[in-house]
Amino acid sequence: MENYSDSEKPAPLENAPASNHKASFGFLGVRGLILLVNSGTGFARIFRFIISGSAGAATNLGILYVLTDIFGIWYLFSSICSTSAAMIVSFTMQKFFTFRNFERDNVHRQATLYLVVSLSAIGLNTLLMYLFVSIIGIHYLLAQIAASLIVAIFSYFMYGKIFKMNI
Fold it and tell me: Could you give the angle at which helices 140-162 and 107-130 cross, rounded to 10 degrees?
């Protein structure tokens, strides 16, 4: 337990800005971040969506690296394995963490729809990349950022329908 003098003792979370806390995460503080993620607000759900997507991306890149660079497996086969693992991680996190859907009756149906939406998202991303780069002439990295934002919005609402989010 940390010892504080009366002048530096942190105020309770609900009464003080997060910057007064010793453990700080940006403007929220660690406890504020935890409260935000666990709250029932739409903003919290979007934040959980970003966390879940990031976990899927990290899984994809991590497994791809390990299989290709450490085990020497052909990069395309490694990519198939890492993308498959990432989709499982992402589905699980979107269902249980982002949308707080704990029903087990429709898991197979939800997984199938999730796969369809994910494949549609890949198609939409490819279409947008072609449009932005080849037709409009935007640099491919900027085009990917824009396409990713559009695809993320599309995916958020589609996953919300799969997991019966009230929008």
Answer: 160
